[in-house]
Specification:
The chain has about 400 residues and is of the alpha+beta class. It folds into 4 domains: about 1-145, Alpha-Beta Plaits (2-Layer Sandwich), CATH 3.30.70; about 150-235, Glycinamide Ribonucleotide Synthetase, Chain A, domain 4 (Alpha-Beta Complex), CATH 3.90.600.20; about 245-335 and about 380-400, OB fold (Dihydrolipoamide Acetyltransferase, E2P); about 335-375. The chain contains 8 helices and 24 strands. The strands form 5 sheets. A 9-stranded mixed sheet has the order 5-4-1-3-2-11-6-10-7. Strands 13-15-16-18-17 form a 5-stranded mixed beta barrel. The chain has a 3-stranded antiparallel sheet with strand order 20-21-22, with no helix packed on it. The longest helix is centred in the N-terminal third of the chain and has 15 residues, at about 65-80. The radius of gyration is 26 Å and the shape is elongated. About 40% of the residues are buried. The structure holds adenosine-5'-triphosphate. Adenosine-5'-triphosphate binds near residues 7, 51, 52, 110 and 133.
Length: about 400
């Protein structure tokens, strides 16, 4: 059977993955076999999410009726149902549900009715609490089909420590990253000297290590010194796989979806209040604005070096009419030309313009010239892929250390 759970936490505490990890242990104690534990990230632009829009799936061999009761009991016991935005959902299905529902949930929006129709059709056991929205994520989790997969080990806290400051040795995190990167990533942000893998929210997670496979995340995990941990779970995930991206063209982008979009810059990047950098690119007739927000830090230095005429592939979510950049491919650089009035050959003084298209004149000797001086400046930027730093990375965004994207 496949068990899906979603929407059990609130900003005040809990975490659906923790509930999933507890359920896995409870089922194992009940002599069931847990074959896989999946952490499934869904559309990151869903506004009613608590944090990272995650749902969980357990692939279990055992008695479905008992597993369903145990899952529902655990949600009743632990989910923070007092929070308006916490609307848990539990699904237990013995029949596979079409992966199309997962594809839609990770790239687009689904309704509760769509989920319920699929669950009913599959003869699944399911329960939704309050407005039942968690059934969407729970159904997507059991329908999930990963074209690419990564691992994350989540180390949870001992319950008595929930809500207190976390004690994780900073040096051991940097050492773990150094020893295992690029097979693990986003433990720390070395360039910005920031720890990334330890949350600041009051949830049960102590830290999480992301990587290519269970072996690598365990290697890193074993190097980390911390307060005495509680339970630990290695998850199979779609994190770091770009599963949220759709091919897009400017002029045909839908709000709150994520895309890779080719284009040519029509305006030079400008830095706005708050340090956010914006430029406009065009694909055919349609312009689209791209944004590198302040938290993307050094990524903005790359963006600021772009000039009109540069060809790029912009990658990110389309929100309020802008692509919020997660990464960018510089496909071809335009020549950086400066056009200035020529120098008078007789006086060695720069001529002045007579107005647009009217040539140039030397103020001193009255010499005339028709053509301006065109200088080609060297570009320091190189074509290729650039990404936001680990501190600003979205869960689903594939880090470049996993290889360059192939959107062909
Ligand atoms: P948690 O740690 O509990 O997983 P979260 O940040 O993942 O927190 P949730 O509390 O799960 O957020 O809230 C997300 C809600 O959005 C869930 O009810 C889920 O069913 C729903 N949801 C997820 N993806 C979609 C989608 N594509 N369309 C519509 N609703 C969605």
């Amino acid at each position: 059977m496949l068990i899906g759970i979603d929407d059990t936490d609130s900003p005040q505490g809990m975490c659906t993955t923790y509930l999933g990890a507890l359920l896995a242990r409870s089922l194992i104690r009940d002599h069931m076999q847990v074959r896989e534990a999946r952490l499934v990230r869904l559309n990151p632009n869903v506004t009613w999410k608590t944090r990272g829009n995650a749902a969980v799936m357990l692939d279990v061999q055992g008695d479905p009726a008992r597993a369903y009761t145990r899952a529902c009991d655990l949600v009743d016991e632990l989910a923070d149902k007092s929070c308006e935005n916490t609307n848990p959902g539990v699904v237990v299905t013995e029949r596979k549900i079409s992966p199309d529902f997962y594809y839609k949930a990770v790239t687009d929006f689904c309704t509760i009715d769509e989920a319920v129709a699929l669950l009913t059709g599959a003869g699944a056991r399911f329960k939704g609490w309050k407005n039942r929205r968690g059934l969407i994520g729970a159904t997507a989790a059991v329908a999930s089909d990963f074209a690419d997969r990564t691992s994350e080990i989540l180390v949870y806290r001992q319950p008595g420590r929930f809500g207190t400051p976390r004690l994780v040795n900073r040096d051991s995190l940097f050492a773990a990253e150094k020893a295992t990167f690029p097979h693990t990533w986003d433990t720390v942000d070395t360039a910005n000297d920031v720890v990334v893998c330890v949350p600041h929210t009051p949830d049960p997670v102590l830290f999480g290590i992301r990587g290519e496979n269970p072996r690598w995340v365990m290697t890193a995990r074993q190097m980390i010194r911390s307060e005495p941990p509680g339970i630990e779970q290695i998850w199979v995930t779609n994190q770091g796989t770009d599963a949220h991206l759709l091919p897009g063209t400017a002029g045909h982008l839908e709000e709150l979806r994520s895309y890779y979009v080719p284009g040519t810059l029509t305006s030079a990047p400008v830095t706005r209040t708050g340090g956010h950098v914006a430029f406009v690119m065009k694909d055919g007739a349609f312009p689209v604005r791209c944004m590198a927000y302040e938290p993307t830090k050094t990524f903005r230095h790359v963006i600021r070096q772009l000039i009109p005429g540069d060809q790029v592939i912009a990658v990110g979510s389309f929100k309020k009419g802008s692509i919020n950049l997660e990464k960018i491919c510089i496909v071809a650089l335009a020549p950086d030309r400066i056009v200035r009035p020529p120098v008078c050959p007789a006086c060695n003084k720069r001529m002045t313009s007579n107005g647009k298209g009217k040539g140039y004149k030397c103020k001193k000797c009255d010499a005339r010239a028709t053509e301006p001086l065109v200088e080609i400046l060297p570009r320091t930027l190189r074509p290729g892929w650039y990404e936001v730093p680990p501190t600003a990375r979205r869960h689903l965004a594939r880090p470049l250390c996993r290889g360059e994207p192939d959107f062909s």
